[in-house]
# Entry
Amino acid sequence: MYNYVFDPKDYTLEDEIKFHCYKGIVCFNKCCYDVKLVLTPYEFLRLRKALDLGVEEFIEKYGEVYIGEVTQLPVISINMIPYSLACPFLDEKEGCKVYKDRPAPCRLYPLARFVSKNEKGEKKEFFKIIRETHCKGHYENRPIKIKDYLKEQELEPYLYYNDLWGEVVLKRQKFANTPLTGDMLELIFLIAYSLPEFRRSIKNKEIPSFSEDTADLPDEKLLEKGLLYIKDKILTEENLNW
Ligand code: SF4
Ligand code: SF4
# Structure
């Protein structure tokens, strides 16, 4: 059961919060149990590379893949350790073993970020503060602007790639009543979560929409191209209006 409340106020980047989390705080690690960690493609890539694991190896060891109920897009989530419900990346003494590559929700905490676009396509974002009884970081007297907190937590690439994935999800929701074909699902998984195989398929000219030199792009660039392709070329009205 998740026992948290949001502050009623909506915060902007310029607003200040009071929060500090550090090794040695009385609640150290308490937030790393019973967490619902659903990985975006970029978060999956960062973690998988940090742990030097192949796609299937990672999933077998730490998570599971399923089809999202609403979006019907593939989802990868992390399984907590049975009984203790600890995150599998937690070292009880030292803290997060994948700290440098931890997913965005772990970086953002105690903030939740909401993004929308207006009619002109301009992005708007606001934040809510999450309060949970176990988290004592709120009582630390460290004022910090939200924009500085995001910088401190090195969120910039996460927000960029996760927003791109968010646009894919939004596009899919537009046509939520039309099921995706097996071929579409396979291609979306390949592009979003299986970059080595995606790269190999491009090299072997199995996906003609991508020129051969695309296969030589660095992972992040390839992922960016791939996510745009899913949004603009796979999830189109033409493809989904059948
Ligand atoms: S990834 Fe790290 S910070 Fe996030 S829940 Fe797991 S141990 Fe905690
Ligand atoms: S202050 Fe909050 S985020 Fe930091 S360790 Fe404690 S419970 Fe976790």
Summary: Residues 37 and 78 are 6 Å apart (CA to CA). The chain has a mean pLDDT of 94. The pocket of iron/sulfur cluster (ligand 2) is lined by residues 21, 25, 27-31, 109, 134-137 (CB under 6 Å). Strands lie at 5-6, 16-18, 38-39, 63-67, 74-78, 90-91, 95-96, 111-117, 123-131, 143-145.
